[in-house]
Design brief:
The structure is a single chain. The chain has 705 residues and is α/β, with parallel strands linked by helices. The protein folds into two domains: 395 residues, Up-down Bundle (Growth Hormone, Chain: A), CATH 1.20.1250.20; 249 residues, Rossmann fold. Helices cover 60% and strands 7% of the residues. An eight-stranded mixed beta sheet has the order 1-2-4-3-5-6-7-8, with helices on both faces. Helix 17 links the parallel strand 5 and strand 6. 54% of the residues are buried.
Length: 705
């Protein structure tokens, strides 16, 4: 062991190696949803992809310890970092799931050899009097790597794609190998001397009951943290509608806290009874798991932070205890055994969360599994405390195997969904047969709104006085044959413009800035793809708002629709004046008219179509949820939609994320819906295509309800 000040340089080099090693391992989780989508993984496959960490820990941990003992920790650690970089680079270019799986295996194989050697290096270089603090600092650096790595990968993944995010991690791993090789100097005078430790009953790590017990402790202590790290991003997106960067900051919050928790508990381990400190870690971790079951974002964030931070500190401090079990060159074997058994749990944890997610359809069962793991950790700490006090040696020797058996048994019988928590029921079939959405025209296609040689309707202007006494204008499209069939009546589409436009924009024939609605309808009606309909295009510029009204109150646009627009249209045109024959659609700001007017008045409208819109302000989204959650939760609401609720946005649309957050509420409450993602952005090239698509499913022929 290094003495005096000589240990600082190799310790600092080891810390840098740990930073480079963990940036990808702990920081890449925000990229997992994108990786899952790229290779079409289900949640069980994602659990295997993440849980491979544990499988390879089982396979390589003991060989890593043996190689560290044979060739020295420096050579094996540096080689492992190079293997990490190679695996990450291969994953960044992987064309298929099988290639990605192999790249992940290479990455994690290198990681496991490096990780074991990091622990060996710290155990061999740091004086025993500061081992708790030195492991705490190591844990803080590991947590810092995720604080840096998660946003790094999230931002690069968002702006340049997940593959470039993975490639950035490969470069960091190479830098770590270079720095460690240059600055780490091992002490050739380290002896295989065993400390005076009451529980160290064997000079071989493979025959020491305490080493195996500490290995189980390390696995249990970190299982919740490692498992949650991989599934929190998906849960954050599904439950709280966070995007990739938002999910990465959720992870970073936990590992930011872990920096301070590791330092604090490292200090406490050197100055107080170590088993009491470990018991406190486990108890607080269980409380964190309980908080993760909340559907309140702040509470969930706090719970996630506690589970990640305390689990991370628990892993580090279990290695502190392991470092004191046997010293010298046997340290490599100790760390190998601890790492191997911990790998069993780090494999089972993500696998179990993946199975529970697919089985239950939600994440709550997984969070209760984490609580159970923390409770088992506390029980084992108390047993080892008793063991180290010479009060229950025989029981402690049997306890690791018993706990392992209990853990494995628990995984064959998934926990029941906690009583008192709502179970979302999948929506039933609608009142009308589910329509088939036509494919969108190509982004550059202009034929569908060409002025073709087909019968044409006409667009006329109409003026009415609204309930405030203000004259307002609307454009009205009348289908071909309207004037020649005096007895025919028609359904009505109310089509709303966007912010900064007026009622003339949807009928404008400007190829770049116009909706060409009348030509789209003429062509569809002529080909028999859409029913003849009246299209009313009102001017809602003065009344549309992105802010929901107070609960139970109609906003200005809603009042104008109910008091003025609809009565005027029904009295001046040959309409079918009932809800089954009224649809409401709108783009951008007009989408808010659809949401704020259509949803609370499904007694007036039976079809709602939102193009490129969604609440921007989180407070508005929360208010929208509060206003309409009773309606959306009501199973009868689905019967009021004759066509599933429709939303669409472009892949570069400024409203994409906002629309997805709104749609998530409809999904959360089980409302049937269509979601369409198109090429392009917030532009008329998309809105014309959405009208073309939705006009073909409007006003289906089916029984009224």
């Amino acid at each position: 062991m290094n003495t005096g000040r000589n240990w600082w340089a190799p310790y600092a080099a080891t810390l840098f190696a740990m930073l480079a090693l963990q940036m990808s391992n702990l920081g890449f989780s925000p990229l997992l949803p994108s990786i899952r989508d790229a290779f079409h993984m289900n949640f069980a496959q994602m659990g295997l992809f993440a849980g491979m960490y544990g499988l390879l820990s089982i396979l390589w941990s003991v060989p890593a310890g043996l190689l560290a003992k044979r060739f020295g920790e420096k050579m094996i650690l540096a080689a492992g970092l190079v293997a990490v970089a190679a695996g990450l680079a291969t994953l960044s270019a992987a064309p298929s799931f099988s290639t990605a799986f192999g790249a992940r295996a290479l990455w994690l194989s290198g990681y496991r050899f490096s990780f074991v050697c990091v622990m060996v290096a710290v155990a061999l270089t740091c004086p025993p009097a500061v081992r708790g603090a030195s492991m705490g600092i190591l844990g803080a650096i590991s947590a810092l790597s995720s604080v840096i790595g998660a946003p790094l990968g999230g931002v690069i993944g968002r702006d340049f794609g997940w593959r470039n995010g993975i490639l950035a991690y490969a470069a960091v791993a190479l830098a770590g190998a270079f720095v460690f090789t240059i600055f780490y100097r091992s002490d050739p005078g380290v002896l295989g001397v065993r400390p005076d430790h009451g529980a160290a009953v064997s000079s071989s790590a493979f025959r020491s009951p305490l080493v195996w017990s500490l290995a189980v402790l390390s696995g249990l202590a970190g299982m919740g943290s490692l498992s949650a790290n991989f599934f929190v991003p998906s849960a954050a997106q599904a439950l709280f509608h966070l995007d990739q960067v938002g999910a990465s900051y959720l992870i970073s919050t936990g590992f930011t806290l872990a920096i301070f928790v590791n330092l604090l508990f490292g200090f406490l381990m050197d100055r107080f009874h170590r088993w009491k400190v470990m018991a406190a870690l486990a108890a607080l971790g269980a409380l964190g798991g309980l908080a993760m079951t909340s559907r309140h974002l702040l509470t969930f964030r706090i719970g996630t932070a506690l589970v990640l931070a305390l689990g991370h500190a628990g892993i580090q401090q279990s290695y502190t205890l392991a470092a004191d079990a046997l010293r010298g060159r046997e340290t490599g074997n100790v760390m190998g055994v601890v790492s191997m058994v911990a790998g069993v749990f780090s494999y089972l944890g993500p696998q179990m969360l993946g199975v529970l997610r697919d089985w239950s359809g939600g994440f709550a069962a997984g969070w209760y599994f984490i609580i159970g793991a923390e409770a088992a950790t506390l029980l084992l700490v108390l047993a080892l405390w008793s063991y180290s006090s010479n009060r229950a040696r025989l029981v402690a020797r049997a306890l690791p195997a018993l706990l392992m058996a209990v853990t494995l048994h628990a995984q064959t019988s998934p926990p029941a969904v906690p009583s008192g928590r709502p179970i979302l029921v999948a929506p039933k079939a609608g009142v009308c047969p589910l329509p088939i959405l036509a494919a969108l025209p190509a982004y550059s296609d202009t034929a569908f709104f060409a002025n073709s040689d087909v019968p044409h309707g006409k667009v006329e202007q109409a003026t009415y006085n609204n309930y405030k006494g203000v004259a307002n204008r609307m454009h009205v499209y009348l289908p071909p044959g309207y004037d020649g069939h005096s007895a025919a009546t028609y359904p009505v589409l109310y089509l709303n413009h966007g912010g900064g436009d007026d009622d003339s924009q949807w009928s404008s024939q400007d190829p770049k800035r116009g909706g060409n609605a009348q030509l789209i309808l003429d062509n569809l009606i002529a080909s028999g793809k859409a029913k003849p309909m009246i299209v009313v295009m009102p001017n809602t510029h003065a009344c549309a708002s992105a802010t929901p009204s107070a609960p139970g109150k109609d906003d200005a646009c809603t009042q104008e629709y109910l008091k003025d627009i609809i009565p005027y249209v029904d009295s001046h045109y040959r309409t079918k004046p009932s809800r089954e024959y009224r649809a409401l659609a709108g783009l951008s700001m007009g989408g808010f008219v659809v949401l704020h007017t259509g949803l609370p008045h499904l007694d007036t409208f039976s079809e709602l179509y939102v193009y490129s819109s969604g609440h921007i302000n989180p407070a508005d989204l929360k208010q929208f949820d509060e206003n309409f959650s009773p309606l959306l939760k009501d199973p009868k609401t689905n019967d009021l939609f004759r066509v599933p609720f429709y939303m669409a946005a472009g892949e570069t649309d400024i409203a994409l994320n906002n629309g997805q957050k709104v749609l998530a509420l409809f999904n959360q409450y089980g409302v049937r819906n269509f979601w369409v993602l198109s090429t392009g952005g917030h532009e008329w090239a998309n809105w014309r295509r959405y009208l073309y698509q939705t006009a073909q499913i409007m006003f289906p022929d089916c029984a009224s309800r």
